[in-house]
Structures
1.
Amino acid sequence: MTTTDAAEAPPPERLQEHFDATIARDQRIEPRDWMPDGYRKTLVRQIAQHAHSEIIGMQPEGEWITRAPSLRRKAILFAKVQDEAGHGLYLYSAAETLGADRADLTERLIDGRQKYSSIFNYPTPSFADVGVIGWFVDGAAICNQVPLCRSSYGPYARAMVRICKEESFHQRQGYELLMTMMRGSAAQREMVQDAVDRWWWPSLMMFGPPDDASPNSARSMAWKIKRHSNDELRQRFVDMTVPQAAKLGVTLPDPELRWNEERGHHDFGTPDWDELMRVIKGDGPCNAQRIQRRRAAHEAGAWVREAATAHAAKQAARGKKGAAA
Amino acid sequence: MTSDKQGWPLYEVFVRGKRGLNHVHVGSLHAADDAMALTHARDLYTRRNEGVSIWVVRSEYIAASTRDEKDPFFAPSADKVYRHPTFYDIPDDVPHI
């Protein structure tokens, strides 16, 4: 987009003041507003990481598209994985309003300079995993993302509104899938419990390290990029999920999990933070496979991108010739 | 704002939600040409009946006004109170005005 500076911007010393006042009034920052470098960098990092998570997040469930047990489940799974791609693209689009470049972001993902959510580095050995991902992982994503609809950066908040509308389908299809399996054979119920046992703790880790070990959180909250702390959101997820687990008839694998009348919340055990750090650093069960597949898809698609560019150039040249004649 | 490595320019996407409403900006995407931009916009921004019509335009063709929403550029619209109906005192007993 080209900007015509028909009128003068506020003088430099007032820029920070103006930015702070906009945040304080709970108004949104928009793409061409002045913003502190730290704010811009934090947003690009967070939005890119979020976008990468959506794109990598297509893989664990995508593996089940060809093996879904019915046409109904296959169609649902297709739609869901397509949504994940869409979410990634909304978010890349938001990152680009901050001056990030799409191709550069992709490069940063596949050469490991930018991260994605640790949760997508766990494998999906059974079809119950598809249900549990919808229930836990998309449920946790909803806890994280609903407050982001009020994030101070306009394009990010608007992308989150679209995404949240669609996540509700994701969570519900997962829970319904699990209800169906729980009505099935003893072996199917065991598959569900096994998937719950494997995904519960990694899902709690999705909210990030505990507040006292999350160095950037306070600044992000001051800027109103984030609205709630990691621990608050984790608590919200646990409180939301416990009654759903009871209704489904599965046991959440935490002996310390119990209702605390005084706090009005559930107490729960401590996730293995060393495991989270290992997975973030690249040593999870599927890190290498996820990136390798993303890289292969990107490289195998290069000729398509080039051919489309060549076709567009040819059409444009023909159009010009036609106009001249 | 074209990407050198990819070579596909950036497009802004506008969707008309239903008949009777304006097209509204919904986001952007990359495409090789206008036709691809329209089909990508359909796939990306209207998967659930969000639109009945789509406009796409290369981002570089949009001229934008200001750095900031509260810019002196818009000052002329703030100082003409006589443009608003409430500027005029009309007795309460005058009907339908």
2.
Amino acid sequence: MNPVYYLYLAALLFTIGAAGVLIRRNAIILFMCVELMLNACNLAFVAFSRLHGNLDGQIIAFFTMVVAAAEVVVGLAIIVTVFRSRHSASVDDASLMKL
Amino acid sequence: MTGALAAAASTTSTGEAVQFWVLGTVAVIGALCTILMRKAVHSALCLAGTMIILAVFYLANGAYFLGVVQIVVYTGAIMMLFLFVVMLVGVTAADSLKETLKGQRWLAVLCGLGFGILLCAGIGNASLTSWNGLGQANSGGNVEGLAALVFTKYVFAFEITGALLITAAVGAMVLTHRERIERARTQREQSEARVRTGRNVPPLPAPGVYARHNAVDIPGLLPDGTTSELTVNATLRARGQIRDVSGEALAELAALEQRSERWLGRGAKGGGAAGKGANGTSANGAVNGADGDGADGNGENGAHANGKGADERSQDAGSHKGAAK
Amino acid sequence: MENLIGLLVAVPLLGAALLLCGGRRLDGKGHYIGTVLAASSFAIGAVLFADMLGRGEHDRALHSHVFSWIPVGGFHADVAFQLDQLSMTFVLLITGVGTLIHVYSIGYMEHDERRRRFFGYLNLFLAAMLLLVLADNYLLLYVGWEGVGLASYLLIGFWQHKPSAATAAKKAFIVNRVGDVGLSIAIMLMFTTFGSFAFAPVLAEADRAGEGKLTAIGLMLLLAACGKSAQVPLQSWLGDAMEGPTPVSALIHAATMVTAGVYLITRSGAIFNAAPDAQAAVVTVGAVTLLFGAIVGCAKDDIKKALAGSTMSQIGYMILAAGLGPIGYVFAIMHLVTHGFFKAGLFLGAGSVMHSMNDEVDMRKYGGLRKYMPITFITFGLGYLAIIGFPGLSGFWSKDKIIEAAFAKGGTEGWILGGAALLGAAITAYYMTRVMLMTFFGEKRWVADENGNEPHPHESPGSMTFPMIVLAFGSVFAGGLFSLNDAFVKWLEPVTGHSHGDSPLSAAAVTGGTMVVLVIGVGLAWAQYGRRPVPRTAPRGSLLTRAARRDLLQDDFNHVALVQPGQYLTRGLVYVDHKLVDGVVNGTAASVGGLSGRLRKLQNGYARTYAVSMFGGTAVLIAATLLMRAV
């Protein structure tokens, strides 16, 4: 089996995550979808690491995890704050970007 | 074990292929469930499952450190953070899957399909037929290899990542912190204020006693049989999570009273009075039942409008009724 | 002495500033301030005049550089004054007659609550007019030229509550603009031709420039003169300008401002001398206006409009004389001065009559006034005798010389011009006699108006009769004084030059002819208005009379020839603007609006919609990358 299949899997997961971002309204689930996309990327990085035979891909995946952790902390804090003031976690409620 | 791992580093075995196809399928199903589940809790659980499978794939790809970190940090910490927030925001709140933006779903699916196909085409286009295993790189141990890279080549990025984490922690605290702009009132001041206004001088009445689950969500009854709003926590009321005292329960109560009076042998003498009382109670119960139905009806309406929580509530109510019967 | 020249202008300007900015607290004494300042300007002029007489004939011109106005590279516009004999003549006329009319206005405007403002405007006019005649370059002259136009506008429309006055003021202003365009073009042409617009270099180098350019400049100057001096074809405003108060008509629209055109042509004599075609145009305009104004004057029943026609005609004489070249310049100015006296006197007399007749202007409602207002009658009568050229009086000396000079032009041209001038003299005698007879002779024809107010004719107060008396003296003696020993010719000759020409007729013959036509004119008028009683309502009259009553159809001509085509053009342009320009603009706007209305729906504010576009964009980018790789 060629490790390239891992890449296909990563692409599939990434696409599913992206579609989830577009379809779901709940900000928390949206966030989960983003995490799914990041994980798909990580899988791709790990597979590439194996394909190329060096560890740089794994290092990048490691950094991605760290950044994702930071992102989740801040993002969830924002969601909590928004929920506190609006009593809703729907991203559609924050549609003030239009006039 | 070591041999298998070494083999995973440079070659692929049939076992790995089987593992890939089985777990890969599960991972995709998990991902799909993540985006299709109506309840955030379910989504989070499915995502956690997908992540664990990804951890296995990391291990299979020779990224032992990352595989463990994936389980510990991602599945262990981040996903639990998610669950925590989901609980905070309302675990019962289920999303309606009805799309409100016109054409959004079609566009999303279309874009997703196009994107996925293009991505796969890109991967297929790339010449990845020959590949190097990680045998060489992992020869001194995977963690050691990573450590060598992190503290030499990527040390700068590593330090900046540390700064990022601190910033994120501080940011989260700043975002969720609420400044108290006035001194908190002491208990004494509060009681004095209560006496001064003259309302609710004694403690608030307790909620109802028809405990099936946790009785705080069932209002208490006033002497005339009507429910008292005061007995239920305002937060529950605001969320619409109050359960009504059903007509059956009241009827059952009346029957219980009748039975106990009869058993106590005060039948003929106090029968009139008791009957009267029972009649009165049952009448009240009927009234209450009607009230309860009305409230239920409202709840249904709310379910239509609000999508999710109502469904569960009506389910709950149904189970409650069933239990009452 | 040079510094006094600037003071000449500054004093009335100060008066205007004081009176116009001083506010109500000057209401009580504003007219005295204005009059005293005008009189002091006259006094300064008199001092300068005495000083000038004390110097030799050829170094009488004074020059005074006040400040550099616009020094830009090779372009120098200075505020500088030049006082030579020609300017001196005007200064004395303007300040002298101006002062008298200030005095007269004290009485005439007594009951007007805006008298202070009136005197402010009069002072403004004096300042502007003095600037016009004292300027040493055409640009500064232009400033004065516009200044008198402004003062004229303000004074014609002084009673702006009357729509007719407001309209007349606008008409005068607009018609004058046409002339002003001529003057500005002339100044630009001068600058491109001579590189300067100061009198000295321009006039000195005039004969060295090409004749074509000089003709162009001359014609433009003539256009300017036509506008300001109400000459055909820009004559239409003067009749309506009589809506202004009578002192204004006397000062601005008879004695001074309307003669600015004559000054301009005389001052630019060197240019016209070198451009015979322009000169021909000038004499044509003069001759035509001379007859035009006279004919209009014959038909008008409004005393001021009859006098306005007369003014037009007399200025026609001056323009004619100025167009004759060195033969005529001196006489043009001489007639200008004498005309300034007698026409101002006549207007003041008319004002006096109106003042006592409850502002009635229709001569058919006068009659027999000589018994009621003897001083007005005598001064008006002397002015009348002067204007028709009664032997010995001012008009006789100056007009006779112009007729002589017209004949002296020589050839067929001379005969035609002389004939026109003679004919004009006959008509002048006719219409002035008519005015005289209808106003002061015959039976009284006034009746009470619908409110039962019957006019009670009475002599005007001293402040009004005094200027009339002084001007009557001028009307009687000025001409004789000027002609004594050819004093005026000698006075002006260093500036304008003078030549006698060769008249085909002797001076005596011309005088004799003038006397004959004078008698014919007076006789005709007497036969028509003196022997028979004057009807109270105007008879229908002949076709010519009716046309003349309508100012010889000048307004109709303007309407048909200028206003209507203009209106059609504007309407067409408005149509084009509405349909074509607006259509394109609105169409563009509508399509952009519609498009953005559609596009706006993309901007619905939902983050997920934007995410879709981002995602789709990424897909497109990947596709593009793949395509590029494939290619």
